[in-house]
Each structure stands twice: as structure tokens, then as C-alpha cells.
Amino acid sequence: MRRALRTAAFCLLITLTLAPATPALAQVSFPDIEDEVMCDTCNVPLNIAESPRADQLRREINKLIARGETKSQIKATLRERYGAPILALPPASGFSLTAYLVPILVALGLLLLAIVLLRRWRRSGRGADSEEPPLADSDSARLDDELERFGR
Hints:
It is built from six helices and no strands. The protein is mainly α. It is elongated and about 100 Å long.
């Protein structure tokens, strides 16, 4: 009897551990989605928008959350009703993918440029340091006199 209970408890534990989270268990909260939706009159994210239209969108999103919709379902519903500009982030596909790739490529290009320029700068600096012109005899004598005068 005890062995059967232990086996059943172990199976239940494994099932709960390995079971994927269902949308019903993963309830979305309003702050999770608020910064990803734009106010269509203010043109700012909903979490900082202060207008009657922003309040209307907040109420609409809260109704969708109350119905138990997931974050992706809420965003899809809003996109269908108001178009793609209602979402703060562009989709990561098609031409909109450039919004994600261009800044990365520019940063990598600037890093490469900095490396090349630093190498050239260091190379040109070495040549100038190693070939110092010799002091004239009069300058050398004056330097020795000055050093002797200051006690060195």
C-alpha cells in the first residue's frame, strides 16, 4: 500500500514538473502588456500616455485579460482592430526585421572602425617616438647647465 502511494506521488510530481505551462495557468497581467502597446492618439507607449483614449485602451486590455486571453492573443486582437502601429515593437520578420538588425550592424561597423583606427594610430606613434632628433651641442650644454644649477 505504501509503495503504491509513493509511486503515485512520484508520478504526480514528475507530471507536474514536466508538464508545460498552460495559458490558463500563465495569466497575463496589465503591466506585462502595457509597455508594448502604443496609444494611437498620443503616439507614446500606453504606460506613459495620459489621455482619454489611453484610458479607453487600458479598459479594453483589462477586459481581454479578464476573459483569460494570453499576451499574444491580446496583441493579435489589438493589431486586428487598430493595425500594426498599435504595437510598440515591430514584428521580427520581413522588412521590419531591419529595425532590429541595423543598429547591431552599425555598432559592429563602428567597433571595427575603432579597432582599425587604433591600430593605425599606435603604428604611427611608434615611428615618431623612436626617431627623436638629437640635441644641438649648444642645447645640450644649456640643458646640462640648467640641471647642474637645480642640483641634479
